[in-house]
């Protein structure tokens, strides 16, 4: 996971999302705006759907504790992928999200 480090939180978040979007199998995802991800209202109820929700959100937003062991980091990565998918599903039914999907 060391390849995700960057100079600023915003760059990291953008980089993680870009990395996720470029991963094989994720071709139909669009980039969810960082503001949307950071607005807790948009995440309501997702904490019950995702294992290690807080850590997964921390990974997506560059606040994950770097001292996690490799096994736990892999688990959190899997949860972050799931969480991003759920956030994406909510985002694309917004006006801005629909516009992004049409242009994608």
From TrEMBL:
GO terms for cellular component: cytoplasm; protein kinase CK2 complex; UTP-C complex. Signal peptide: none annotated. InterPro entries: Casein_kin_II_reg-sub_N (IPR016149), Casein_kinase_II_beta-like (IPR035991), Casein_kinase_II_reg-sub (IPR000704). It comes from the Eukaryota. Pfam families: CK_II_beta (PF01214). GO terms for biological process: regulation of transcription by RNA polymerase III. GO terms for molecular function: protein kinase regulator activity. Regulatory subunit of casein kinase II/CK2. As part of the kinase complex regulates the basal catalytic activity of the alpha subunit a constitutively active serine/threonine-protein kinase that phosphorylates a large number of substrates containing acidic residues C-terminal to the phosphorylated serine or threonine. Tetramer of two alpha and two beta subunits. Belongs to the casein kinase 2 subunit beta family. This is Casein kinase II subunit beta.
């Amino acid at each position: 996971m060391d390849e995700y480090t960057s100079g600023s939180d915003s760059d990291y978040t953008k980089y993680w999302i870009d990395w996720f979007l470029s991963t094989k199998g994720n071709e139909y995802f669009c980039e969810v705006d960082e503001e949307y991800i950071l607005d807790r209202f948009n995440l309501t109820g997702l904490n019950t759907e995702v294992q290690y929700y807080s850590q997964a959100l921390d990974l997506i937003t560059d606040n994950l504790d770097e001292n996690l062991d490799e096994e736990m980091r892999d688990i959190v990565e899997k949860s972050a992928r799931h969480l991003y998918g759920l956030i994406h599903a909510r985002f694309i039914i917004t006006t801005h999200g629909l516009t992004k999907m049409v242009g994608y």
